[in-house]
Structures are given as structure tokens and as C-alpha cells.
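Hallway conversation turned thread

IA: we were arguing at lunch whether anyone had actually written out Ligase-associated DNA damage response exonuclease end to end. Turns out nobody had. So, for the record, here is the sequence (343 residues) and right after it the C-alpha cells. Reply here if something looks off.
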Amino acid sequence: MKTPLLHFNNKGIYCQQADVYLDPWKPVKKAIISHGHADHSKWGHQQYITHHTNVPIIKHRLGDINVSGVDWGETFTVNGVKFSLHPAGHIIGSAQIRVEYQGEVWVFTGDYKTENDGISVPYEVVKCHTFITECTFGLPAFKWQPQQEVFHDINTWWQQNKEDENTSILFGYSLGKAQRLLKHLDTSIGKIYTHAAIQNMNEIIRKITPLPETIRITADTKKEELKGNMVIAPPSAQSSPWIKKMLPYVTASASGWMAFRGARRRRAIDKGFVLSDHCDWQGLLSSIKATGAEKIICTHGYTDIFSRFLIEQGYDARTEETQFEEENAEEEKATSQKETDKD
């Protein structure tokens, strides 16, 4: 039986012909990395290859690693296998990985979204025979509103909080979501303060693309300075002593999970804004159709439901288990706590 061009093993997604892994979750010799989130870029590989805008991001997170960067569409060949990276639109530096050998083309999406967020390079359709897609929000219930509507609501919320003399605290992951929020906040309303973990990442991202001015919160920051202004913090900061100094405040979360009734209540959040860096149901389906792929492999998310639907639509679809999640919560929590402890 012919070995597939890519197959899943206990270390990650493996190309045997090239002896290369895509986003491996255990240490390997050579890894091609789709983006900087901790569930896709792990420490311990001997060699990393990624898009050049992602190089400073993963070096910031992983430390002194052997990493090289390539440009969009730049082909590099390993033992006859052609690889190239194409925009995924998920976060800054996020890529789909195209793999071609003897006329057969596979595409691994990593994480992706089709809406242009104004800060990431927009998603690019890549034609292929086999498409490996995430299913983080692979249910018909997930249908995103245009982001301009969401950010209008966020800025209206901030303005109201300012009039009520409350501090606005908006939670978003330190890489990706935080910068997207910053890009679209109305800075005429007030100043934007950030948790140290986000500010440190902002300093890296500013070398890649402009961001609005932000002020790092330190132990010397007074709650009077924050009143009426905006604070961007990672979700893990919500339950930390760090946040108590900011009273009175109103909290909100910007996440696709806010589409679920009860999610805001379970997280003890005052307000939820449905804003995701992943495709919704229709975005997944339209992306798959545009690739022209006949074989679809569904990973991380609502894989069983989504793959069954694809089979009903005539696709050759199946599921594979990975160790990918929306974001590595433990890593985010550890980073946030470490930066909080410095203040």
C-alpha cells in the first residue's frame, strides 16, 4: 500500500519522503511551522522553517532556536518534495503549508480565517488534491458578523464605560487577538493600557506592522490613571490579583466562543463580543470548495460532525487527532503570570 504524502503519527504531521514534520507537537529534526501560537510552535526541534514575519515571534516565545524564514510562495525542496507557505489570515505570520510530490498536492491550513482583519496577510486559496482543515468552529451555529459591526459595538461599549467612569478591560490572547483589537479600537475615546505579556508581544509586532500607542501597566500604575480608558489583557489575567487594582471596571471577552449562550456567564464576563481568528461554518465550507480538493482531513474542533457533513456533500472526508487547540492555555497562563509577577 502506498504511503500517503502526509500522515499523522505520535509526533505530528509527517512527510516521510522529505523526513519533515508540519507543526509537530514533539521534538523532531526538521519542522515547518505554520504560525506562532504555542500549540503549533513547540520548543525542542533541531531546525525550524517558517514565514519570515513569524521568525521574531517564535524566537520571542521559544528563545534561542535554529530558525530560518521564507517568503510567501517561495518554493524550497527537500529530497524531491516541494514546500511553500501561503497566507492563512489567522494571525500575523500565519501560513498554510503546501506540499507537492510527483504531481500530488496537499495543503495543511494550520489555523485560518477568510475575513481580512486588516493586520494579517489575507487568506489565499491554494488549489490541492488533499486539504487538511481545522474545525475549531465547525458547527452551523457559528456564523460571524462582519468585523466592522463587532468593532463598532466594542467602541460603543468603551465610550459608555468612560461616561460611567469605569475602566474597560477587554480580554484577548497576547498573540493575534490582542493586536487585532488594538488595530481597530477608536483611540479618540481614550488611552490604551496593556498587560505586560501583551505589551512585550506588541514590541515584537511593531517591528512588522504599525500598532496604536499602548501603555504598559506596572506596579506603579494607579487605578485613577486607568479610569475611562481601555485595558487589554490575556484571559488568564482575569482571575489574578493583578486585576483587582483596577476597580471599578467592566470586563469583556472577544472570542468566537462568545457565540455560545452561557459562555460569558461561565467565564464571569460582563460582556461578550463574538470575534474569532478562525473560520465560521460557512467560511470552512467555502474555503474547502475553493481548493478543488476531493479529499478532506478534519482536525481539532468539531471534527466528527464536520466530516460527516462533508461526506454527505460527496467529499472523501475523514478525521485525524492532533494536539492543536485554539491556543495553548497553559502556556498563555504561565506567560501572563510570569509577567504579572514582575509588576
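OS: looked through it. The longest helix spans residues 147-163.
IA: good, adding that to the notes. Residues 327-343 have pLDDT under 50 and may be disordered.
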